[in-house]
UniProtKB/TrEMBL annotation:
It comes from Nocardioides aurantiacus. Fe cation binds at residues 88, 130, 134. InterPro entries: Peptide_deformylase, Peptide_deformylase_sf. Its cofactor is Fe(2+). It catalyses: N-terminal N-formyl-L-methionyl-[peptide] + H2O = N-terminal L-methionyl-[peptide] + formate. CDD domains: Pep_deformylase (cd00487). PANTHER family: PEPTIDE DEFORMYLASE, PEPTIDE DEFORMYLASE, MITOCHONDRIAL. Belongs to the polypeptide deformylase family. Binds 1 Fe(2+) ion. The keyword Flavoprotein does not apply. Its EC number is 3.5.1.88. This is Peptide deformylase. Coiled coil: none annotated.
Amino acid sequence: MPVRPIRLFGDPVLRTPATEVVDFDKELRTLVDDLTATMLDAPGAGLAAPQIGVGLRVFTWHVDGELGHLVNPRLTLSEDTQDGEEGCLSIPGFSIDCRRAAQVVAHGFDLHGEPLLVEGTAKLARAIQHETDHLDGILFVDRLDREARREAMRWIREAEWFGEDRPQVRLSPHATNGLGI
């Protein structure tokens, strides 16, 4: 279970929709182990495969002492919303209030290909939505209103880790279920 480098804002893999997992094999189990080790080392509440450079629809989470993973997630979101602080391991050191659905029901699979249902509220709902967004090439800054996004981009441009290639945050081409731009 090696700790893998986390890709930072500006890396194109973070903007590329991930591919469905079709093989529930040893390589997938190794990926889940690596995601878990990397997330716990960071530490973070969640980590998606694209954040370590793997374009597969897999993520892990560690929320309120619960450790889990989900492969090929499909989400059903509540109409009720929650506002709360959100950050991202791919934008280290930055957090800001972000609106998300208050509850989520996630259908997917475990690392052995067995069907899995995860229901979450509060922080777990936020983490599941955040990580699923990563699988769709969406970053949480895409969900911010114009002023908050401007603040986020200003902070990112001034961050010590930010490289010379300064990518622009673009509007997401993906449905945001009324919770984004």
